[in-house]
Amino acid sequence: LARHLPCASSVLLTVPGGARGALTVTTSLLKGLTDGCIKAVGRADVIRNQFSGATFEKVIDCSGKCVLPGLVDAHTHPVWAGDRVHEFAMKLAGASYMEIHQAGGGIHFTVEHTRKATEEELFNTFKHRLERMRRAGSTLVECKSGYGLNLETELKMLRVIERAKQSMDIGISSTYCGAHSVPKGKTATEATDDIINNHLPKLKELQLSGEIHVNNIDVFCEKGVFDLESTRRILQAGKDIGLQINFHGDELHPMKSAELGAELGARAISHLEEVSDEGITAMARAKCAAVLLPTTAYMLRLKQPQARKMLEEGVIVALGSDFNPNAYCFSMPMVMHLACVNMKMSMNEALVAATINAAYALGKSDTHGSIEAGKQGDLIIINSPRWEHLIYQFGGHEALINYVIVKGKVI
Ligand code: NIG
Ligand code: FE
């Protein structure tokens, strides 16, 4: 039922009676949302009393449905031109990720195309990708630069991300990833110096003038890309200008990235297929989140990250789609499905990893990632009394997700 009333961002969700499933506590409750935040969570009769005089723009009857927090995608590379469908065929024929990269393809291919693209072209494709992510339930998405590598194109990408941040109904945490690869014609040391001496000072200036608002710094710490020492220098310099450390580590080779991240106070490290036992312990102790990316391990047929061991050791495990030209996946429900089947996570663990823990990995768990009074009103409503259908169904989630609500606004 929908009644039309004044406040633009005021939605009331009701589920009379007790819904089944692990999230009964949320689905059987009534939520009032005003000004973009969740106003109250509680028993239907109590909330009805509390808001008896209130008017709502929209009232959604959620009987037979589940209300969940909006999904949080903790790792994406969504701004680029030039897809790599031709490389998919090469990989299926047996070429490895690094073989393609070293032959000048992979990230280099995308960099070439992204440098040539206009800001407008990049924005239009990015916007469309964000809409597809949101349609699949994501309401907060981490978005990286990293297909420019030179200052000019990195800034172009960051401006595109900033524009979406300001104009679209979706949460964005933006990441400077100028150390995504060593640009052609430079050594890793030259690239590291360029980032520290030229990119980061410019970034700091633009942050101070309010032109862009970057949240995180990222480096691809990998054999043949940035070694541990270069990674340390770049991350430390980023931290010094106020960015949260959130980087790619221990993906294809054991690099001791986890140990480094724990030492530097990283918020999160992504991939970790090759993390050491000591690295896992260090991450647990440092409360450094592990952002696991099941699409990448699947696409590249890598060994699976040790999600079970991390969970048992108390690491904060989050999930991300890693959307990029290598892993072309917009959908966090698909990611949760893969995490359960291939990484042996339970459905509860996968949901936590794709909501509150992913928000933690972005430094936003105080405001995002769960249904609590005072938090941002980011919710999804699925057309099933069992929330697990979101993971159990293998694809086609756009039809299962009835509503996506961002800051209290029904999209
Ligand atoms: O997280 N590993 C490095 N970066 C991306 C892939 C980027 C690309 O291949 O374009 C990742 O998987
Ligand atoms: Fe990535």
UniProtKB/TrEMBL annotation:
Keyword terms: Histidine metabolism, Hydrolase, Iron, Metal-binding, Zinc
Catalytic activity field: 4-imidazolone-5-propanoate + H2O = N-formimidoyl-L-glutamate
Keyword Zinc annotated: yes
Co-factor(s): Fe(3+)
Signal peptide, first to last residue: none
Full protein name: Probable imidazolonepropionase
One example GO MF annotation: metal ion binding
Organism, as annotated: Buteo japonicus
GO terms under cellular component: cytoplasm
